[in-house]
Please model this.
Amino acid sequence: QVQLVESGGGSVQAGGSLKLSCAASGYILSSCGMGWYRQAPGKERELVSWISSDGSTKYVDSVKGRFTISQDNAKNTVYLQMNSLKTEDTAVYYCAADFRTSPGEWCLVEAWRQTNRLDAWGQGTLVTVSS
Model:
């Protein structure tokens, strides 16, 4: 069973920066992609960013130019560098992943859309941005 452990959340003033990390453990043949979602109080969960195994990335419009996703494939770890944070970035951030965990398994197409089929979710880390 694959597990994801997040770290790096916390409190910061608007304009500040934080870096989130998410490390995967368990039996993983290969990574198809990993990403970050967030859920603010009273709002639905939304995709923040996704990075596929080939390095291609996807960002929600509200974070483009401020957040950068990266990965270390050898460590099955994904990072989210968050700069110029705004109060509206306050949320619980969740890491999620699509992995190949058995021979013959295929990667999901547009995995970030298929949240109910992702292999693992982290426990969430709170990011609080104050004015």
